[in-house]
């Protein structure tokens, strides 16, 4: 089993973002991304969020509905979903920043 910050796993997480950036700009940032600590931390967060959502969903399923705990769990799922999108946006922003640094 790989560690949570395994470079190969992070490369897999970043691959769609790197492909999107390459398609949009023509610039391949794969080598730069592999050594950028901020980007790797964002990738690690992005990789873990689906497991968080699954855990919340499983906890919700074990609760009798309707209950305040289920409502809280549903709100937490919305927040995790929002965080997933915000983290994706942060990854894209970091790639743009790295792109700007590498073209100057």
Supply database-style keywords.
104 residues; mainly alpha
Descriptive notes:
The protein is built from four helices and no strands. It has 104 residues and is mostly helical. Helix 1 crosses helix 3 (37-62), helix 1 (7-25) packs across helix 4 and helix 3 runs antiparallel to helix 4 (68-103). The mean pLDDT is 89.
In helices, the fraction of residues equals over 70%
Q: What is the string of SSEs from the N terminus onward? A: HHHH
Biggest sheet, in brief? none
Q: On the 0-100 scale, what is the average pLDDT?
A: 89
Low-pLDDT ranges: none
Radius of gyration: 17 Å
**Can you count the beta strands?**
0
Count of helical segments?
4
Shape: elongated
Strand content: under 5%
Structural class: mainly alpha
End-to-end Cα distance: 40 Å
């Amino acid at each position: 089993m790989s560690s949570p910050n395994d470079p190969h796993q992070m490369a897999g997480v970043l691959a769609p973002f790197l492909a999107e950036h390459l398609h949009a700009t023509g610039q391949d940032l794969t080598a730069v991304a592999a050594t950028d600590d901020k980007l790797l931390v964002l990738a690690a967060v992005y990789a873990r969020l689906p497991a968080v959502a699954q855990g919340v969903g499983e906890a919700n399923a074990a609760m009798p509905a309707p209950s305040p705990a289920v409502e809280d769990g549903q709100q937490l799922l919305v927040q995790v979903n929002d965080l997933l999108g915000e983290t994706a946006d942060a990854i894209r922003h970091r790639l743009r920043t790295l792109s700007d640094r590498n073209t100057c």
